[in-house]
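step=predict obj=3,4-dihydroxy-2-butanone 4-phosphate synthase n=429
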Amino acid sequence: MACFEVLRNAHGLRTVRPRRIACSLGWALWAPLSRMASGTCAAARLLTAAPNESPLMNTPLTPVPISPVEDIVAEMRAGRIVILVDEEDRENEGDLVLAADHVTPEAINFMARFGRGLICLTLTRERCEFLKLPPMAARNGTVYSTAFTVSIEAAEGVTTGISAADRARTVQVAVAKGSQATDLVQPGHIFPLQAVSGGVLMRAGHTEAGCDLAAMAGCSPAAVICEIMKDDGTMARLPDLQLFAAEHGIKIGTIADLIEYRSRNESLVEKVGQRSLTTPWGEFTAHAFRDKPSQAVHLALVKGTWSPEESVPVRVHEPLSVLDALEVNRSMHSWGLDTSLHYLNTQGKGVAVLLNCGESAAQLLEQFNGTARASQAPERGRMDLRTYGVGAQILREVGVQKMQLMGQPRRMPSMAGYGLEITGYIPKE
């Protein structure tokens, strides 16, 4: 008789437990793994199976392929956990993701036991404001600007707050329609993450993807997420995640696919104007765009025409300051505004996207007086690593498909998801 049985819980997760074995005393015992004879039953195989083998069959696991977005949304709608992976040129990590409306103690326990990462709750900006959740730090100095708020705990119905049941209770309170800010206390054992308005089209992160997928599944725009680590404590990458998914019966999706899916069906930018523009470096056609979440207005200066298969030079200039129009060779840009437009004019084709940084009067004055803190330039430069969505959509709107980026190679999220291909880089001479 097999010593183990495979169960599937409400979240669709496979678990393995010992069968009840009748003994001579007539009562059932749970057979502990330590008492199983090596090689005599599935319990021994569970102990000795290689990492890429099934613990029950002692046969190699078949890596789970990437599922389309529609399947991932269906899993979320059914209350099942999925794995969401970002790209190699980003964190290259996978998170367990569950619509927060479907959270249970069992789901939290699975994440803690098998995911091993930090269990977080993704929330929209509006929800964070409603619950009066301020940022965890006044200045976010993290590499990817992960927007942690203060940690939270349910004000009632919990004990120490750390148990799976307590954390599930806190999540339930945070997303319940009738909840108020007073129903939560700080600090706690759940870590909310504030998503950027516009979701993955504005920031290609697990935070935004969790909110997007939950909303697409008809749930509250909130998700419980947890990074997946390997047994040795290092981060699981795609090959590891595909085996993990096979072992636990979970589907895998990607943020790039989610961006592509949303890009096919919606846009966060709208064109608000177009006219010819004469500059000291030549004639351009200026296209004005407004992005809907922030209402900021951005410009695309287009030179010439090209076929869809042509790779054209592109300069995405962010953040754009009034000083860029007045001062040449500003140190914060590898290509200045003047040199960028001069180069495009000599090439006879290309696009310069001028993104509005929305700087305050105080920030502009600091730059003007040369008193800006040394840390400000790197901080502002990091923003575009996660907010290239607007620039990408503008490039699509003006007909770019293949491009040579003017600048040094850098991390950029999910250009493939927008239907854009980077064929190379053009360093400043």
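step=describe
The longest helix spans residues 164-175.
step=end
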